[in-house]
Amino acid sequence: MLCAAKIGRRSVTRQFFMLSALRFAKLGIAVVSLIVYGRVFGVGLHMDAWVFASSIVMAVGMLAWGPVNEIARSHFLQQAKRNGFEQAARHATRLLGVTALGSVILALTLWASGQLLVDWLYAGNDAQSRALMLQLFVWLLPSLVIGQMLALTSAYLNCCGVIYAPEWIGIGAGLFSLSCIVLGAAPWGIHALVAAHYAGLVISQTVSWWLLYRLGFLRASLRPVIDPGVREYLYFSAPLYLSYAAGQTNAVLERSLATSLGSGTVSSLHYPAQIKSTLQAVITSVLFSLAVPRLTKAVGERSGEGFWPVLREVQRVNAIFLLAVLPPVLAGASLIVAVIFDLRRLDVIQADVLANLIRAYVLALVPVSLYLVHGAALLARQRGKMYAAWGVISQAMSVALLLALLPQLGILAFPIALFVSHSVASVAMARAIGPSASLWKDTGVLILLFFAVTWIEHSLFQWLLTSLYNPLAVLVLGFVAHGAFVVAALALKRSRLGG
Question: How far apart, in whole angstroms, are the C-alpha atoms of residue 270 and residue 201?
Answer without folding.
Answer: 21
